Amino acid sequence: MDQFTLNLIVVGATFALYIGIAIWARAGSTSEFYAAGRGVHPVLNGMATGADWMSAASFISMAGIISFGGYNTSAYLMGWTGGYVLLAMLLAPYLRKFGKFTVPEFIGDRFYSQTARTVAVICLIVASITYVIGQMTGVGVAFSRFLEVDKTTGLLIGAAIVFFYAVIGGMKGITYTQVAQYVVLIIAYTIPAIFISLQLTGNPIPPLGLFSDHVGTGEPILSTLNGMLQDLGFAEYTKQSDTTLNMFLFTMSLMIGTAGLPHVIVRFFTVPKVSDARSSAGWALVFIALLYLTAPAVAAMARVNLIDTFYPNGTSEAALSLAEIEAGVDNQGNRVDWVRNWETTGLLAFDDKNADGLIEYNASAENELTVNNDIITLANPEIANLPGWVIALVAAGGLAAALSTAAGLLMAIASAVSHDLIKSQLNPSISEKGELMAARIAMAVAIAVATYLGMNPPGFAAQTVALAFGLAAASIFPALMMGIFSKRINNKGAVAGMVAGLVVTIIYIFLHKGWFFITGTNSFTDADPLLLSIKSTSFGAVGALINFAVAFVVSNATDEPPAEIQELVESIRIPRGAGAAVDH
What we know:
- The protein is an all-alpha fold.
- The chain folds into two domains: about 5-300 and about 390-425 and about 435-465, Hydantoin permease (Orthogonal Bundle); about 310-370, no CATH class.
- The chain is built from 25 helices and two strands.
- The chain has a two-stranded antiparallel sheet with strand order 1-2.
- α3 crosses α9 (about 150-200).
- The chain is globular, with a radius of gyration of 24 Å.
């Protein structure tokens, strides 16, 4: 059976499963559409949260960006995992105790202001749309290779599938679909990693293989990779070249951005009790750790295999030739047909600049190979010459990761528009059926916008997602933290803080992106940061500090919140049985 047919069978089977679950779990009420009827088991919710959170950025792009960025990009691992711990400990249980459907609803009630609720909706939509662009980028990358279509066509196919099962099923359908998607993506991520770890180190456990000896050189695999890169003029893989300030701020942006992501927070509204919210957070961390412990090994080993492909003799003096690429086999008898396969997607390119018939891969101006970071995880099994069923499985896993998070984000956007804008403010008398229809229309519009912008994203999937985390960090996270832990912050302070954090961060990002959203030009560069060494992907932490500072200054200069609001804040934090709070 050829690879294309195998891809169609495996990917098609998983999609049929997702759509079948969406139809089976079709939402029939607003409670089921927004919060799955609050009846999801903590273990299943933990698994769904893992799939919701581990997006295309985690599955498709993170290993690629670490593979080419080395030590500097390890902040992705630290920030995203650390942020989830922050979310589980400081926000999820308290927000579940509050007992509302959405994040803007909490902000509106806590800060006794429809204006605050509206601002929260705007912040949510800006962050979520940016995040969805990253997912759609991943969808386009995956489909373009494994269905052998161009990236735009792949993007449109993925958007149609998300539209069907997200719009039909609502949160109930999305939850159970994400459970299936987690199983698919974690199997798809770990199986090829095990194969490749065995090939390169003899160790079947990838996280341990990362610190084992390379079977060819007898040296630790990271030392081997450092030597390979230095021989080609690249920086050492394990060397820090970014500033400590920028790395710290970037890690913090990812951490607090994670804790402020509405589509993840809303997952904790789907369980029956507050104690279940804590339990599902713990389970989600276990499920997330399975992938995040494997990702560094995938990144390093993929880079080793990539270099070995273009220098099969182990020396930079014997580069892969155009004739070998055309034949699909190098002079050592290794298959290299993956090079042509990925070239057709436009995500890998080579140009024999000196017309010597060889493709040189190095850090000089004479470099003749360009590799998009986002292909590394998906191409890894092909580079390592793994069986066809493994390649098909990785395709299904990458799509599961991208589509699960896209669905969760679209659900958050739809809920904010239909519940927090239309139902709460524009048309309070709208029927439940009308509200459901409004939510589905909002979701369809969001899919269309994200798909259009995903055709020319402002960076790799992980970079685009990092921008979304920065926006959530600067706008939503401070409002949630102050809403739970400070009785003094009032409505004026909360609104001023959110607006200040969001606007300053957006301006900083736009100045670095060359006005991408206006010009449509992909100019993802952080050259010449405006403030010290702080890059646009790291600015979310600064935006959050501005948010906190403005909120405290404005609140202390104006009236205290009403007594009943202060009592509400107190009740959210009191453990069950210790006073007025009850376990909803």
